[in-house]
Specification:
Elements (H helix, E strand, L loop, with lengths): L2 H11 L3 H21 L3 H10 L15 H5 L6 H9 L13 H22 L10 H9 L9 H11 L3 H26 L1
Length: 189
């Protein structure tokens, strides 16, 4: 599968800027983690890009409608499983078992929290964000209330990581892809 096919599928079912930015962000973060581990960057990235393909149009069927939509681009079973596993215990019974799936589960909500925190900074960027400031935002349950702290915590535990380690690595991943996402957002919206 080519990235262009994945982008076209994403845009077919997602038009809101927020959802498109989130998809690109999770794609970039997953590529970062794949590169760090010597894994298939393109595959991990496509999983991140399409992880919420069904969310905007089918929010009550999230992770249940995805397999049907992913058939449109002949996504393989490994991709479908990974995408559906990110909703484990929330809207899906598909358990994340591979490291890639566990990372996706852990970073999905966290990227939203980090982006919300970045938008509050004078720079409106992750490039000058520190783990300590993210920890403060994480503890403030009213800040970005839609980002599940329990899911983020569980994600770190499933990976065997301290929360600080997950925060640091995800901030670094978002820093690395931030400029590319900004450029692509100008093209796709």
């Amino acid at each position: 599968m080519q990235r262009e096919e994945a982008i076209n599928l994403l845009k077919k079912y997602n038009q809101e800027e927020f959802h498109l930015r989130h998809a690109l962000t999770v794609e970039g973060v997953m590529k970062y983690f794949a590169k760090e581990r010597g894994e298939d960057k393109e595959f991990w990235g496509l999983v991140g890009l399409l992880h919420d393909v069904d969310f905007e149009k089918y929010p009550t069927e999230h992770c249940k409608k995805a397999p049907e939509l992913l058939k449109e681009i002949n996504a393989n079973d490994k991709m479908v499983h990974a995408i559906c596993s990110h909703g484990y215990g929330i809207c899906s019974e598909v358990e994340p078992t591979l490291e890639m799936e566990k990372i996706l589960f852990a970073v999905d909500e966290l990227t939203g929290l980090i982006w919300a925190a970045a938008k509050m900074r004078p720079s409106q960027s992750t490039k000058d964000m520190e783990v300590s400031s993210l920890k403060k935002k994480f503890k403030d349950k009213k800040f970005a209330a839609g980002c599940s702290r329990d899911t983020i915590q569980k994600g770190a535990e499933n990976l065997g990581w301290e929360l600080s380690e997950l925060f640091e690595k995800t901030i670094l991943a978002m820093r690395e892809c931030e400029d590319e996402i900004e450029a692509e957002m100008k093209e796709i919206i």
